[in-house]
Design a protein that fits this description.
With about 500 residues, the protein is α/β, with parallel strands linked by helices. Helices cover about 35% and strands about 20% of the residues. It has 3 domains: about 5-45 and about 60-70 and about 220-305 and about 445-495, FAD/NAD(P)-binding domain (3-Layer(bba) Sandwich), CATH 3.50.50; about 105-215, no CATH class; about 310-435, 2-Layer Sandwich (Guanine Nucleotide Dissociation Inhibitor, domain 2), CATH 3.30.519. The chain binds flavin-adenine dinucleotide (FAD). Flavin-adenine dinucleotide binds next to helix 1, strand 14 and helix 18.
């Protein structure tokens, strides 16, 4: 085996990004993916002329993609076209209230003012404060490999630390700028993807809605899967070797270091460096189950707080769906109760929060002419919290409740218009992509699971062992896992010859 060989397990966005960066370092990179297609959670279902992105539906911070391609000497825009989505997201409540977010300041203030007359100054002050938090988080904290909490925090002055509002809840922080519960609920609902309730997560996470409002949301032409194809194409040009339909059974180790991998079919491949894009607890608990050196790490990763699961529906719908744009979030009356159910009581809330993305509104080629590709995402507690579940019955109940809620809003999407349906339960998500506890977004972003407190992207106890993706640093979501690939490659460059 060559000292420059790297094996990557998993072709999710983190693995694909790490592959490009490591190849750029001149290493021989071979990637093994268990599924027939690359992309991981960012996969694609093609059926009856409809094309559905399985997971992520909207992209933000597009410069992360541009930087990644530029790092390999290529121009992102030569590989893919990004289409802006505006309004970015609309929120609807059962009482008929509506809020549309936009990266156009005039439209944003107009929409907020319908819920809170005179909201303009609050919107401006909110954006100003969130911008400072965003700049601090991005420039000083999130995107750097740093293992020492002391050194991590010492990058900030006391004033900057106070600015991050880590001791105030996200919901409390929003209350500083907005009186309207609807605006607070909408902007706080981003907590769901971070794995916590806005009543528990720190105030610094106003950076999420800020990032969307300030920099917009985008859809790659051809759907999010177009991004996966662009990354794979660039990797192939650079000489990355991809093996799909090839599950890894075990990471082989000897004398305190990795030696390569053994595949499910028994074949072995040698390499002194292995990067796992599989969720960290699954890597440590299954692929490294035999390795005593990582036993402490294994216990720690098994205790990790993870984000909720999701039930997702992919509906091919005849005709257009009127009354909805690309991306709509339906919030319940009992907002606090829904978060309590998801994160504390381990129940699927009776009044469901959910979101619907109709990507064909932005890119009509994703559906047969005149039809709609509809994606519905309903959060559920993680599997171990939920306990045994009769999924077929639960899916039927969720489908009826979603359709009933649409009827209440006079959205003309009725069961008889759905011509194709695919459903993934949290168990399907877990099995198909090796997700820990059926968690859709990976490790939660609680205060003690960010930066140096998050599971690190290397195993100090096992030479040559690295991690990338949503459950290690810096975090979950497409831009973060793409950055994760860069940070893991930097780790490798600093620790290996
Ligand atoms: C429903 C849903 C909606 C989302 N919406 C958004 C959104 O709108 N915007 C956004 O930015 N993010 C969104 N996300 C989050 C985003 O999709 C993830 O953060 C990101 O795609 C995770 O990438 P990853 O690198 O961790 O790899 P993963 O996608 O987890 O990929 C890991 C890969 O490893 C493979 N694998 C596992 N075990 C093995 C094995 N033994 N051998 C070989 N291969 C193996 C898996 O098959 C998989 O392909 C969403 C996620 C979900 C689930």
């Amino acid at each position: 085996m060559s000292a420059q060989s790297v094996i990557i397990i998993g072709g999710g966005l983190g693995g694909l990004s790490a592959a490009l960066h490591l190849r750029q370092q001149g290493r021989e990179v071979t990637l093994f993916e268990q599924n027939p297609q690359l992309g991981g959670r960012a996969n694609q279902i093609v059926t009856d002329g409809f094309r559905f992105d399985t997971g992520p539906s909207l992209l933000n911070y597009p410069w992360v993609c541009r930087d990644l391609f530029a790092a390999t000497g290529a121009r992102f825009d030569d590989y893919i076209t990004l289409v802006p989505v505006d309004p970015t997201v609309a929120f609807l409540w059962p009482d008929g209230k509506r809020l549309a977010l936009s990266s156009d300041m005039g439209r944003l203030i107009e929409s907020c003012s319908k819920l809170e007359p005179g909201a303009g100054p609050g919107v401006v002050a909110f954006l100003r404060d969130a911008r400072i938090k965003y700049d601090l988080a991005f420039n000083k904290l999130v995107t750097r490999n740093e293992d020492s909490p002391f050194r991590w925090f010492s990058k900030l002055s006391l004033g900057e630390m106070a600015r991050l509002s880590v001791w105030r809840s996200l919901y409390g922080q929003l209350g500083k700028y907005f009186r309207s519960r609807h605006i607070r609920e909408a902007l706080g609902s981003y907590g769901m993807y971070l794995g916590g309730s806005p009543f528990d997560l720190p105030g610094m996470f106003t950076i999420l809605p800020y990032g969307e409002m300030a920099y917009g949301l985008w859809l790659p032409k051809g759907g999010v899967y177009g991004l996966v194809e662009a990354l794979a194409k660039r990797g192939t040009e650079m000489g990355v070797q991809y093996h799909t339909d090839t599950a890894v059974k075990q990471i082989d180790t000897a004398n305190g270091g990795v030696r390569g991998i053994t595949l499910a079919d028994g074949a072995s491949h040698a390499a002194p460096i292995v990067v796992s894009n599989v969720d960290v607890p699954v890597t440590d608990g299954h692929l490294l189950a035999h390795e005593d050196a990582v036993s402490k790490r294994r216990q720690r990763s098994a205790r990790m707080h993870v984000t909720p699961g999701v039930v997702t529906f992919y509906w091919g719908v005849r005709g257009k769906v009127h009354g909805m744009g690309h991306h709509t979030i339906f919030l319940p009356d009992d907002y606090r109760g829904a978060f309590q159910d998801l994160f504390r009581n381990g129940r699927i809330p009776s009044e469901l929060p959910f979101y619907i993305s109709i990507a064909s509104e932005t890119d009509p080629e994703l559906a047969p002419k005149g039809d709609s590709a509809v994606f519905v995402l309903v959060p559920t507690p993680r599997l171990s919290m939920l306990g045994p579940c009769d999924w077929p019955a639960e899916v039927d109940s969720i489908r009826s409740r979603v359709l009933e809620r649409l009827r209440r809003h006079e959205v003309d999407l009725t069961a008889d218009r759905i011509v194709t349906e695919t459903v993934y339960t949290p168990e399907d998500w877990g099995e198909q992509f090796g997700l820990y506890d059926g968690s859709a977004f990976g490790a939660a972003h609680t205060l003690f699971q960010v930066g140096p407190f998050r599971m690190p992207n290397f195993a100090a106890e096992l030479r040559g062992m690295y991690y990338t993706g949503a459950s290690t640093t810096p975090g979950t979501g497409m831009p973060m896992v793409l950055l994760s690939g860069a940070m893991t490659a930097e780790r490798v460059a600093n620790r290996e010859t």
